[in-house]
Write a structure and sequence with these properties.
This protein has about 120 residues and is mainly alpha-helical. It is built from five helices and no strands. It starts with 9 loop residues before the first helix and ends with a helix.
């Protein structure tokens, strides 16, 4: 998206992008470090497994990136559990690269959901 039409100035938008990359990398690292069996189970009180919740968050990030790039939304493949951290990192970085301030804020909301799911 054209930074001139964004509500943040270029320096603030660059800082917001860098913060999103930091957050994405942190959460992706947490996912990679978890035992696979934990990802395959639902947290207490949840109906869906952590892996299902992570895939949903990754899909939301992919949708944000597609919207920001003016591309059609496409379904993400359901990866083996050990690939979820990488999938999250890729789509999160895509949002950071192309998103406007609103997309970056929405991406942070998705990452907060990831944190709670883990």
């Amino acid at each position: 998206m054209d930074e001139q039409h964004d509500e943040l100035g270029a320096p603030a938008l660059a800082a917001a992008r860098a913060e999103l990359v930091r957050s994405v990398d942190l959460q992706a690292g947490r996912v990679r470090a978890l035992p696979l069996t934990r990802l395959e189970r639902a947290a207490e009180g949840e109906r869906r497994t952590r892996a299902e919740q992570l895939h949903e968050a990754a899909q939301a990030l992919a949708d944000l990136a597609a919207d920001a790039e003016g591309q059609p939304r496409r379904p993400l493949p359901v990866l083996a559990v050990h690939g979820l951290g990488d999938q999250l990192a890729v789509v999160g970085h895509d949002v950071a690269a192309a998103g406007d301030a609103a997309a970056l804020a929405a991406a942070h909301e998705q990452l907060a959901r990831v944190r709670r799911a883990l």
